[in-house]
Design a protein that fits this description.
The chain is built from one helix and nine strands. By secondary structure, the chain is mainly β. Strand 8 and strand 9 form a beta hairpin. Helix content is 8%, strand content 53%. The radius of gyration is 22 Å and the shape is globular.
């Protein structure tokens, strides 16, 4: 078997990287999507239309509390429907069946028009085992990175 010495090739590639000769021209790079929160905090309970009750990052640990946000997203590449991934992380909690949970992941399809879309996500505390203090983080990922990230701090009611 003949072995090829790759050291000269590595040096040439390193020289290209250092000089920027292999960089993608700025005009060819797509701008990263941008998101702006339009509503973030506590919402009216239930599964009906979203009605913001209080703008806040602090969530009281109380059954029936509904919290989350809506964000307008711009700079999306593509039209019609685009696939994203919703990732929710929360404090370690143990379900009534003894299963430990730290969050969930779900695919999401967003309708896109002229590079824009809107994403809303909420969660309602429905089970006593969910009432654990700590950080809740909602992330929408796609188009090469995290598009929207929203965090809340869940605290004992009255704090």
């Amino acid at each position: 078997m003949n072995l090829i010495d790759l050291r000269p090739l590595r040096a040439a590639v390193a020289a290209l990287v250092v000089t920027g000769a292999c960089a993608v021209p700025a005009a060819a790079q797509e701008p990263a999507p941008r998101a702006t929160f339009t509503e973030k905090g506590l919402f009216a309970p239930g599964d009906g239309p979203l009605k913001l009750l209080a703008a806040t990052d602090t969530v009281p640990l109380k059954l029936g509390t509904r919290f989350g946000f809506c964000a307008d997203i711009s700079g999306l590449v593509g039209e019609e429907k685009l696939a994203f991934y919703e990732v929710v992380r929360h404090p370690l909690m143990t379900t009534a069946r003894g299963i430990e949970e730290v969050g969930w992941n779900s695919p999401r399809w967003l309708v896109v028009e002229r590079g824009r879309s809107r994403w809303c996500v909420t969660h309602t505390f429905k089970e006593p085992w969910e009432l654990v203090p700590g950080t809740w983080r909602f992330t929408l990922s796609g188009q090469g990175g995290d598009v929207v990230v929203g965090e809340f701090t869940a605290v004992k009611a009255g704090e």
